Each structure stands twice: as C-alpha cells, then as structure tokens.
Amino acid sequence: MRITVEDVRLTRGEATVLDGVDLTVEAGAVTAIVGPSGVGKTTLLRAIAGFAPPAAGAIRYDGADLWAVEERQRLQLRRTVAMVPQDRSLFNTTVARNVAYGLGVRGGPLERLRMAVGGVQATDALAQQVTDALALVQLAGMGGRAARTLSAGEAQRVAIARAIATDPAMLLMDEPTSNLDPQTTAVIEEAILAAVRRGMGVIIATHDIHQAGRIADRVAVMIGDTIIEEGSATTVLEDAASPAARRFLAGELPL
Fewer CB within 10 Å, N side or C side of the chain? Predict the structure, then answer.
C-alpha cells in the first residue's frame, strides 16, 4: 500500500493547522514524523486516517483520492488503516474484548469470538487474531484480565494489539511510547518492527529523535505546520539539508 499526501492544507475554524504538506509512505517500512510539540503531527495522522477532509490538496490511498470517492468506497479505504491515539483509551471490560473491538467494528461478528477468558482457549480464526495480537505485544495469556487493572504501559500495548488485530495495511501511531519506561518502550518498538515484518506500513508521530533513529526507515521533519524535509532516516538524522531541520535535530528548537 502507498499513501500520498499532496499539498494538503487543513483548517480549524479560521486557523490553518496544516499548510502545504507533502508526504509519501509505503507498506513494509516505518516512517517517523518528528518535530516540536504543536506543529501538527497528530493532526496530520488524523488527516491521513480520514478523520477530517483537507481544505486543499489530496490524500490518496494507492492512487485513490480519499475525499473524491463515494462514501462507501471511502469507508472501505479507511478500513485499510488503523490508528493508535495517544490517550490509550480502553473499554471497561477484559483485555481480549478490547482487542476484539476493532474486529467487531470492521465486520467480524463478536459473537463468534471465543476469547481466552478463564483459561478457555480461543478456537476459531477470529479469536486467534486476538491471541496473536496479544502475543505480538508480549501480553500472551492476559486476555481475561480486566483492562482497568492494567498499568499505563500495558494499556498502551493493548491499544496497539487492538489495532494490529484488524490486520491493517497501514498502522498510524501517535507518540506510541510517551511517558513509558525503557523496558516497555523496547517491547513496543519490537512490536512495531514485527508488524512491519508482517508487511504493514507504520507511521509514528514522535518528538523522540532517538526512537526515530532506532526503528524508522524514513523520517519527515515537521516545523511550522508543514513538512520541511523527508528522506531516509540515516540521511535526515545525520545530514539534514534544511537549516531548520538541523537546528531541531540538534536540540536548538523547543520540544
């Protein structure tokens, strides 16, 4: 899958929140969008996910303009993308049912999901998706646990598993390891790389330049509501062409 963002401008009321943004992302790779807080990284992820139409420009999924197609096709296109927001919101039910939620929304009948609750094994294909997704984030065997009892790091891993269980072509993640300990961060980064090995594309918005260096194949630097530089992670992080990008990467602009 290829997603292209072409000269996108997005407004909120009278304010312009994205201005002239261009970006191309491919399945099978990690793209990190880095930049100071408040420049529109989250807004860009939401635009890519189809939550808000741009005022100008186009967002294309494999060439199809997301906002120029009929509503039914737009819904089908959006189902190829899953987003993990920063707030880690979970439902007040079991871990397994939280992971299964996305499958139900996307047409997987929840009544067929025999979740691993109280030692009962998941036996059908849909339930196996839940089991596999939990294993990917190193939460195997925790399907029956109440979500409200989880730590922040565990809750984030469940949120990621919920997105991965739907088998999206592209996974969008907003600050996926913000305020988490190094061990949990390492688990999540490995889950991201495992998703890529499965053929997914991953886009992360992060202010953590070191994380971008560890897992990203490509890096886009966002300053002042637009992307000012994009390229291979090695090139951008080690030899950025833009003076503003170099200043940010050197820590000279506020995070």
Answer: C
212-225 average pLDDT score: 96
> What amino acid is encoded at 63 in this protein?
G
Kindly list the domain boundaries of the chain, sorted by start residue: 1-80+168-255, 88-167
CA distance to 44, 130, 165, 248, per residue, from 142 (Å): 33, 11, 15, 41
Q: Give dist(CA 107, CA 83) in Å, integer.
A: 17
Is 1-80+168-255 CATH 3.10.180.10?
A: no
Q: What is the pTM of this model?
A: 0.90
Identify which of 138, 133, 134, 208 has the alpha carbon closest to the alpha carbon of residue 168.
Answer: 133
Pairing of strands 226-232, 218-223: antiparallel
111-166 pLDDT per residue, tens: 444 443 333 344 467 788 899 999 999 999 999 999 999 999 999 999 999 999 99
